[in-house]
Each structure stands twice: as C-alpha cells, then as structure tokens.
Amino acid sequence: MFSHALALRTNSLRRSLLRGTALTALALCSAAALAADLPKVVILATGGTIAGAGAEATNSATYQAAKVPVDKLIAGIPQLGKVAEVRGEQVFQVASESLRNENLVALAKRVSALSKQKDVDGIVITHGTDTAEETAYFLNLVVASDKPIVVVASMRPGTAMSADGQLNLLNAVGVAGSSDARGKGVLVVMNDEINSGRDVSKAVNIRVDAFRSPWGALGMVVEGRNYWFRRLDKRHTVNSEFNIDQIDSLPLVEIAYAAGNANPTAYRALAQSGAKALIHAGPGNGSVAAGVVPTLRELRGQGVHIIRSSHVNAGGFVLRNAEQPDDQYDWVVAHDLNPQKARILASVALTKTQDSKELQRIFMQY
Ligand code: DGL
What we know:
Helix content is about 35%, strand content about 20%. By secondary structure, it is α/β, with parallel strands linked by helices. The strands form three sheets. Strands 2-1-3-4-5-6-9-10 form an eight-stranded mixed β-sheet. A four-stranded parallel β-sheet has the order 11-12-13-14, sandwiched between helices.
C-alpha cells in the first residue's frame, strides 16, 4: 500500500513538474549551476570617491569621499551577480590621501590572506584615486599570488550624472574573476582600461580618463570582455623577493620636491625627522641644483639614502651618472618610477637591505 501511494505521489509530482513548474526547477537548477560556475570575488572597500556622495547630480567634483558602505556599492550594481559571486568587506572608509603606511600593510596582509583561500578567485580593492597608484604598486610588490588583484576607483561620486564608478566596479570584478588576468601583476581598472599597478599614475585630476601609464595600458575591457595587448616586464607578485607575510612595518621614506630656486632646507628637515631615505623629486632627469648637492652628500654620509626621481608629467626616466655622478656620491636613481612610487619601492626595499648597490638593483628590476 505504502509503495503504491508513494508511486502515485511521485507521478503527480513528476506531472506537475512537467506541467510548468518545471520552468522554476529549470531556472533554479540553472541559477545554481551558474552560481556554481561563477568566479568568487571579494571586494575590499577602503573609501574614496567611488564611495563618495554629492548634494546634487550636477556635483561631479564637489562631494564628500568615503561615505557609501561596500554593501550599498554592491547592491547598487545588480549586474554584478551575473559576473561573479561577490562579497564585500569594509577595510577602511577614508579618502586615500589620508592612508598611512600601517594601512597599506594591513590591507596587503588581508589581500594576501584572502588570496590563499580556495574559495577566492580574485580580489578587488575599491580606493580613492589620489593614492590608488601607490597602493596598487605596493600590492604588486608584496602579495605573492598570481590570482587577479584589481584596484578600482572613480573620478565622480555615484550621486553624479554620468558617474563612472559603477561601470568601473563592474569591469574590475569581471577582470578579477577572469582566468586570463592571472599572473599579470596587480591591475588598475578604470575608464575601460586595464593598467599595470606598477606603471599607472593619476595624470589628470579632473577628467574621467585620469589614469595613464607612460608605457601604455596592458589591455581594455569592453562589454565585460578583456582584450590584452602587453604584459609587465618588471618583477611582481609571485616573482617578487618581497612578501607582506614577512613585513609588519615600513621604514620612513620622505619626498622632497624640487623646482627652480631649490634650497636644502626640506631635505635636512626630513632627514632630521627620521627618514631612512629621501626621494629627490627633481625636474627633468631628476636633476639636483648645485646648491643642494652638498647637503645631499652630507646626508648620505650620515647614512640616509638619496634616491633621484623625476616629477616630469608624462613619465620620468632618470639615467644613472648622466647629469649627476651617482657612483661617486653613492646615490640611487629611481629609473622610470615617479616620486610617489619611488617612495613605495624604497620603503619595501629597505625592509630587506641598506646596501645602495642592492637598492639600485631593486629599482632596476621592480
Ligand atoms: N580624496 C580623494 C581620494 O580619496 C578623492 C578622489 C577620488 O577618490 O577620486 O583619493
């Protein structure tokens, strides 16, 4: 009797399934199947304009950064659910100019820990544009993972007309979930472009196409598809000798900006504040005014490293021993790194070595 009733019920279930609820079952199965296939991406939110809010839709440049929480950012882009299984963590909620070295270390440790998890395929960091280039380069140097790690920002707050943050974030999650983005180093995805975290910097601070790499972008994202054109040649991530798992703090490195009429005052004050290295942000080929050379040589003699970089806009390139006898002065050149990136690399390198020849090798390889 029991088996007969069961058979009847199963048949009736089968018929109702066939009669239309099958669509629901199919939808459920395909949703589950889809979800099972979607990459798992974690969004680490730090603040910035992408989390900003302005009073009016016409406020594209007047707004408060670091207001919108990560869950609201995610909820505001329903299309994310078709691209990846996404979850968010609010690591900080600050304007990026206020990030400190200890914040960079904490963020990198979180990225490193997540990258080791089997249930994480890629990581996105939402960030302010002001120092996104520094954070992206730092992660590129110290996170030993070939999983896609993508820094994303926006030039306009989500409350503004023609805001850029939502598409930037959708693209960033898509790239972070892409197998073809593995092993390419930390990436910065904005304005449909995929740039290397090493090369990219904020070149114009009032336009949507703000970020530029002097040697060109690595690729583009168009309607959710990645198109790659080049790879980063410098050492990064799994090929880096630096690992955040062995770094708990960063030595103090300061930047002194030089133009015409340069004086030695700032360099001396920064050295007295405890800087282990000074980044000379010079014009042209990282040029040093004749009146500043004696102070830099004196500070080098006191054990402070002197690193010549260039603040030219579209991409500096400081050649060793070209206009300054770097060998004789025991100075280091920052190669093509701008001053803010030179500060990041010097801070990381000094966790491992104080030797100026080793520092120069590191500046040429990273
Ligand atoms: N205060 C700037 C920052 O958080 C806002 C600029 C932006 O995020 O685009 O970097």
